[in-house]
């Protein structure tokens, strides 16, 4: 299959590519801006019309060229020009970023029937993760018993104006694929409507980490900070930023910290033990964060030498 034109049109957006194994090509990732080309796209369109792609650093990923263009916020005319190079039968009209909606099967957990077997099973699962009935209300936690998100807890996120901007769907029944999220841009601020931008904020990896921390915690949905969140923080009145990423992401935490130091913010690195915040729970994490180390440029250089 000759995908020369498809590759060329994508290079017009992402820049030079680097050939990898099979039909994979690596690009510099626009989502995390890693210095090395870590975003790999498979140029071979399979029988289902899919071209899998993923950044091996920030883990932003998708199954189609269309989803990649969605996340890149590519103008409709430019996206349509690219999609025409896909093999016949796999072309799907590019409609641009649609308004995100909760699954039609979504049900709120806090007002579920007390006799519902499924709701009670989910509650037990969430109680075991340290959540309470008040958290069900605060975070509008819901669930689906059928449809594309059947068998999953739904945790929505709302913007500052209380508009839905994303949701996370987490399996509670042992499904191998733990998370199934909507195919839309992650360039959002998760739980934005719950954040006080006049107070210190805590950056963590996942939604369960943020809910365990409870106070002014923003999940990155990975190990990289979105453009929208970065811009919001540097233009806000926030002075103190606590970074609480897993131990295997210390280099990413240092990169994020350095960015904010260069913008005049105070940055504190939370050196997590073997457990993440959701495993630690609210009280132990709250005690542990008191030991967070204030970063400066020389300290960052010393940390990097230890990596």
Which SSEs are present, and which pair or pack?
Elements: H1 4-14, E1 18-19, E2 24-27, E3 39-42, E4 53-55, E5 61-62, H2 65-72, H3 76-83, E6 107-108, H4 117-128, H5 133-138, E7 142-144, E8 152-158, E9 164-171, E10 201-204, H6 207-213, E11 217-219, H7 227-235, E12 240-244, H8 250-261, E13 266-269, H9 277-280, H10 282-288, E14 293-294, H11 297-306
Helix pairs in contact: 8-11
CATH structural architecture of the largest domain: 3-Layer(aba) Sandwich
Overall average residue pLDDT:
88
Q: Segments where pLDDT lies below 50 for 5+ residues?
A: 90-95
Q: How many strands in all?
A: 14
For the terminal residues, how far apart are their CA atoms? 42 Å
CATH class of the largest domain: Alpha Beta
Major sheet characteristics: 5 strands, antiparallel
What's the total helix number?
11
Shape estimate: globular
| % residues in beta strands | 15-25%
Going by helix content, strand content and strand pairing, the class is alpha+beta
Radius of gyration: 21 Å
Could you spell the SSE succession in H and E letters?
HEEEEEHHEHHEEEEHEHEHEHHEH
- Share of helix, binned: 25-40%
Strand line-up in the sheet with most strands: 1-2-3-4-5
- For the record, the count of structural domains works out to 3
What is the CATH topology assignment of the largest domain?
Dna Topoisomerase Vi A Subunit, Chain: A, domain 2
Task: Write structural notes for this entry.
With about 300 residues, the protein is an alpha+beta fold. It has helices at about 5-15, 65-70, 75-85, 115-130, 135-140, 205-215, 225-235, 250-260, 275-280, 280-290, 295-305, and strands at about 20, 25, 40, 55, 60, 105-110, 140-145, 150-160, 165-170, 200-205, 215-220, 240-245, 265-270, 295. The termini are far apart.
């Amino acid at each position: 299959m000759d995908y020369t034109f498809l590759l060329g049109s994508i290079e017009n957006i992402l820049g030079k590519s680097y050939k990898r194994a099979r039909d994979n090509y690596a690009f510099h990732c626009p989502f995390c801006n890693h210095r090395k080309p870590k975003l790999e796209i498979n140029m071979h369109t399979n029988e289902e019309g899919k071209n899998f792609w993923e950044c091996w650093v920030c883990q932003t990923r998708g199954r189609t060229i269309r989803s990649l263009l969605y996340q890149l916020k590519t103008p409709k005319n430019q996206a349509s020009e690219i999609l025409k190079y896909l093999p016949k039968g796999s072309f799907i009209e590019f409609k641009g970023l649609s308004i995100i909606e909760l699954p039609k099967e979504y049900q709120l957990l806090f007002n579920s029937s007390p006799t519902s077997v499924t709701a009670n099973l989910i509650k037990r699962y969430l109680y075991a993760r340290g959540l309470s009935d008040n958290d069900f209300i605060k975070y509008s936690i819901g669930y689906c018993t059928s449809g594309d998100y059947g068998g999953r807890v739904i945790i929505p996120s709302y913007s500052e104006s209380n508009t839905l901007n994303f949701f996370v769907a987490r399996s509670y029944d042992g499904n191998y694929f733990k998370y199934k999220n909507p195919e839309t841009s992650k360039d959002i601020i998760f739980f934005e409507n719950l954040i006080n931008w006049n107070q210190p904020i805590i950056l963590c990896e996942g939604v369960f980490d943020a809910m365990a921390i409870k106070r002014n915690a923003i999940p990155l949905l990975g190990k990289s900070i979105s453009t929208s969140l970065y811009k919001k923080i540097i233009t806000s009145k926030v002075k103190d930023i606590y970074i609480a990423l897993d131990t295997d992401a210390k280099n990413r935490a240092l990169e994020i910290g350095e960015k904010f130091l260069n913008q005049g913010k105070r940055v504190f690195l939370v050196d997590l033990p073997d457990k993440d915040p959701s495993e630690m729970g609210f009280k132990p994490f709250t005690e542990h964060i008191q030991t967070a180390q204030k970063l400066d440029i020389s300290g960052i250089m010393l940390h990097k030498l230890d990596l």
